[in-house]
Amino acid sequence: MRSKKGISPLIATVLLIGFTIVLAALVFQWGGRLFKDTTTSTTCQGQVSLACASDVQLAISKIVYDYSLEGSITKLEATNLGSSQSIESLVIQRKFADGTIHSIETPVSLPSGSSSSVASLIDSIIFTGTTQPTCTKIDSILVTPTISVTTSDGITCKKTCTEQTQTISNTDSNRYLDNYDTVCPAP
Hints:
Layout: H1 9-54, E1 58-66, E2 72-80, E3 87-96, E4 101-110, E5 115-117, H2 118-121, E6 125-126, E7 138-150, E8 156-160, E9 166-169, E10 176-178, H3 180-183
Parallel strand pairs: 1-10
Antiparallel strand pairs: 1-2, 2-5, 2-6, 3-4, 3-7, 7-8, 7-9
């Protein structure tokens, strides 16, 4: 009877070294890809954050809020006072006295140094699908610009520049107008 022998120590060593090399190559490839993706993402986010802080400056000169049209903004005059960055959209929030906030993102094209009556471009800004009664008095309107930056690698990052949020209170009679007293009955 022949005795069965295991693999020779030489073959076992060669196999172990081969498996180790293949495993090391896989880990090296995965680590390189992870490093590249992380640095690319960090670079992109860093550039868009820098643009938000230094190249975007939003100014709101007037807001007209209409309670008769399911609570919509019929006029929003905005100016991009920034040096070089265009604003692509505005996140508009209406805040009620009880703390409830309704948001909508409105696409706009507001190049640096330009002004626009944003609500006129889209007829009006209507907050659809909200549960707040029409005559619930709003406390303030917050407007936040959103920008996009494309890196030298061709990757585009989008960011809502919360540090540039403009808050217009309902008591700011120079910039805020509404028809609450004429539309909504006194309690």
